[in-house]
Structures
1.
Amino acid sequence: MSDKLFNKILVANRSEIAVRVINACKSLGILSVAVYSDADKNSRHVFLADETVHIGPPAPRESYLDIEKIIKAAKDTNAEAIHPGYGFLAENPVLAKRCSEEGIVFIGPTPEAINLLGNKVESRIKMADAGVPLIPGMKKSESDINVYKKAANEAGYPVMVKAAAGGGGKGMRVVHSSDELEDAVSAAKREALNAFNDDTVYLEKFIVNPRHIEFQVLADSHGNTIHLFERECSIQRRHQKIIEETPSVALTDELRMKMGADAVKVAETAGYVNAGTVEFLLDQSGSYYFLEMNTRIQVEHPITEMVTGVDLVAEQIRIAAGKTIAHLKNLSQRGHAIECRIYAEDGENNFMPSTGKILFYTEPSGPGIRVDSGVMKNNQITIDYDPILAKLIVHANDRDSAIKKMIQALHEYKILGLRTSKKFMTDVLEHPEFNKGNTYTDFIEKHMTERTVDFEKYKSIGAAVSSLVSTAKPVLSDGTATGIPSPWELLGNIQIGDSIHE
Amino acid sequence: MSNLDFLFEDETITTKTEKTENGFKVIVGDEVYHFVSKGENLFKLSINGQSHLAAAVYNDGKYYVDIDSVLLEFNEPSSDGFAGGGAGQAGEKDKIFAPMPGKIVKLQVAVGDEVNIKQQMVVVEAMKMENQVISKAKGKVKAINFAEGDQVDTDSPIIELELDEE
């Protein structure tokens, strides 16, 4: 093949996104290199890559976040490019810079674009100047509390105090009246300092019950920038998305085109190249406001792939190799796609992290069902990393069918040995307000807080199922157990195993 | 028919399992569940005519179950329950009972034998499965009340022990 993009790519990540990138490499005929910590020796991404490099102990700082180890692994394996996935080093301009110094292609935007868009305050100023709608509020951080007070009065309460370097809800405070403001600003500053080592905070109008609408964009190095429509990610828990869908029921074609054009404008204003996501808040009146641009492939990218048919990770690689995206004209949205994130978090116990060994694992299958998984049976899930285990993605002709398909897929996705939030998600999907499309960012707080699971009903079914589980090897007729008897076998328990046949 | 106990939090749940023409019937309290098919860890059960896919696995004293995406964990009964036997005899460490009505396939001890805790005592076949019954105490075999090939229920002790002094 004369137009081979790269010979070999190093994937500087783990779990499902590393698997996703490795699969994209395979589809393009590119060799892949996985990196792994001590905790990931037997992880799925390590099994799938063509080559593997051990990069240190489980602690991310000593492995997946260690830029020099990643660079060395790429050089040692002669990888020509590095794909950072999401999280870890994906939005770290230093990795992008180190790559260019070493003559390695960074599959993502330039360090300058990452820097600009990573600074929420600076990027807002730039986007406002370009004519992109912003939430009313302060354009930048100030030291004088009176400036915050004046801005809050102008925007109107409630207002939100946010960290400039923020993310994941840290350094964020909603303020309902002027007498709470001063305390909230100092608290947000402390939180921001702890979380990001930067106490810059600003203030803006708090939009009540908005929807979170984001647009996928792709930009090549030949000046082409396009959007691939929206994703609605309003179902969030403490600012973390858990269920995403596309299209959004809230967008008319006219609004979609207008927001899409503004998303393209944001990317162009930032001089952006590669895949990125422009996030907006959409209020009840149909006004929308630019929030930020994420300079990476997103967790929820598969739903865009399902409705547009575009392989976004493959396009990232093509763009990094200098190809154009001119072939991606005249895209349309076909059908409806939903994604659910399966986290190792206990949905029945305040989303406490859950650890343990995966004792049983099986995935759903069928038309329009996709599983992006980072795990396999016998994997040990530890607290070292992000709790994402897998993502279920479904595609159907319409929203109602997609919802039903997702509920069934969740039921068929079985992962035992850990607690997950599967039941929480089926409860969201079955909720009448979700089915009506009344999805706002306060959905979980409003509809899920009082939710309970009827364990009274399920405990007897569960015990019935348990009574049929094989617990040990059958006993031979000469009375000797097959191998060393397990404690349970010694209990004289009935063995309803595979040997029951008439 | 076999009885099993499971601990859910602090509550003991007893199940009665029966083989039926096309699968299994499990009775829990007033509820009857029909299982139409089972694999090693996957089970299909029918509740009010609707089928549900359940998964379960046993590991290290614990059962992990997923039914309708509800995750449950059960502990096996306390170690006091070993040596089989119906619930009524659980405390009698000097008597060995069949865990369910069945046929004695093999007697593994003789009168006068010194036996250890967890020693294999007798194999009872029920529902075409053979079940190893073990001792839950240390002692000497005082009496054996049945022979190989005999049918036993869960109320008559198969073997009686003279327990060692603690």
2.
Amino acid sequence: MGRKKKKLSKPWCWYCNREFEDEKILIQHQKAKHFKCHICHKKLYTGPGLSIHCMQVHKETIDKVPNSLPNRSNVDIEIYGMEGIPAADLREHERQKQGSRPTTNDSGSDDDEPATKRPKPEGLLGNAPGVMQGMPPGMVPGMMPPPGMAPGMQMGHMMQMAQMGSHFMHHPGMHMMPPHMQAMMQGQGGPPKPLFPSAIPTSSPGGPGAPIVGADFKPISSAATISAPPTTNTPGGSGGDGKSNTIATSSATSKIIHPAEDVSLEELRARHPRYSRNVPSKVDEAAASSSQAASELAIAVSAAQQAAAHHQQKQVDAMNQHHAAMMQQRFPIRVTAGPPLMTMSAPMMAPMRQMMPPTLIGGPLMRPPQLSMPPGMLGMPPGMVYGAPMFPTGPVLMQPRFR
Amino acid sequence: MKSQTEYKLKSAPEDAISAVKFGPNTNQFLLVSSWDGYVRLYDVTANNLRHKYSHDAAVLDCCFTDAVHSYSGGLDTALKSFDFNTTKESTVGTHGNAIKCVEYCSEVNGIITGSWDHHVKLWDPRTPMCSGSYNQGERVYTMSVCGEKLVVGTAGRKILVWDVRNMSYTVQKRESNLKYQTRAIRCFPNKQGYVLSSIEGRVAVEYLDTNPEVQKKKYAFKCHRIKEDGLEKIYPVNAISFHPLHNTFATGGSDGYVNIWDGFNKKRLCQFHQYHTSVTSLSFNHNGSVLAIACSYSLEEDNLPNPMPEDIIYIRSVTDQETKPKYSS
């Protein structure tokens, strides 16, 4: 019987070296003895947790874990049960156990059942198949610890080790890292498991078969969007009436501090006359790489913009003419180069469309412009000033200040 | 709050600050674009203004390409470059509408601009011309580059992921997981994913890998909200900046707060004091020891405050304790 059996040690508390029959009791002990807030007696889960709690709730700093041994009082090490104990300390503990109880070890040479005896951090490391990538779960418990490895090391570490190969031993610094950090370092390998079961992701039950990346702009997984009740009108279908989307900014208990119109704060600011003063009616000359239609479009739009500049004191008649002209310009190319065209023309058309009945807009072929964007944000022609009558739907944000 | 950890930059812009960006290898130089039509270069250590150059209209974004060259764009639709050594400025090209985002991509040594004209354009700094124009389908609101990946956030809550080495097709098209307008997107320095913020006090952490196992890790959380008399005020999250080393990030909101988060461990690392008005832009320096915080009122509310809050840039020293994930001690 030359084989030296290493009896697995009981779970023990890193903070006070006390041993326990089972890790659940150990965790209870730690919460009661070491992770309890001395001010409000709330039981936290880890030393850092306690430290953060005291910092945030009571504005007090904790520099020592309560009731801990002098050299084990570090509040920055995240320890939960047997999880997170620095490997060096695990080894040291084991060595001391060996020394103090030399006789117990050789007795039961056949009680080699590491799977059951080993402290198993249930629910901490998770038994999700994803963690065990490429390694049959059954292998782990039966595996003998490689030479030099502390026998007390738990499954979690072993798994990590298996994944990381022999490099593990050559990087002493790594021992300090909790398993989820290691998982992170392996790129996308196993998902880093949160230390607390409660901190599971809030989303995406997306099964393996779920379609992922679509060109349809659906969320990346089957999970629903994360947030409060729906607020914006359906995007895309919105532009048809010439109004921009609005955000339901107020509810009974909350208020979103944002203008009701669903455009960016920068666009709202840019509408202000103060900022439109110097906007040149430049044509996009760099459209070389775009389609030819686009450059044609640019010229057309530029012409329209210049024209618009002349008529800035907009009479409805004049605008109608414009509008018709623009429609004719845009119609032939619209099919080939929809979005850029709309970009340019939409802002000018939007206010007008609100001023006249739809029948005036054009012939049967000329569909109302599809405004997928709110009016007034883009390509504001020089000198054109948005005021309340032109833009009845908007919040007319700047007005109070300049009246 | 006056302290040695934080100070105001002198000769601040005279209108709202649109962007602050630290130089690539220094914590000395900070590039600032403003609605007053100027791009300014500050020496942060000496606390003075080194250079400024102007656009024809408000400047919405700027970036360094190296220590002495900057690019900027704004409402005048022109992309300008400036050489701080020779103080030579030039107009590189234009968009069809205001340029909202200007980013430098070292991977392809190119400038990337995003505009309200629905397009993203690539520019080669050596031959100052546009080397590609790509339709995003909507107005570009925010943009971030990490490595070869370009993540574009547009109006209508769309997210487009591109590979800058091959812009012939869109790698991914997504809809934002947040229900409200996208405000900012920044990529994790480790290239695994990105952080997205909305106008509704919420931040999402998303992963680029489409593997369902990886996608399970994504999540979103509420922040930048203030409860007052039973009414919860929810503020836009305007700014995100990643710590270059720790993969943690700072968010700045219209509530005037800056929070630092550990996205992988779902923890808030710290919160600074409340600033006097909205935080519009944030930038960590190259080693993450300093955070520039731009504060400008951004017209979130229909009733303008009187007097209008000052436009101020704070330079704040941050420690590892504030920015480093707590577990790896």
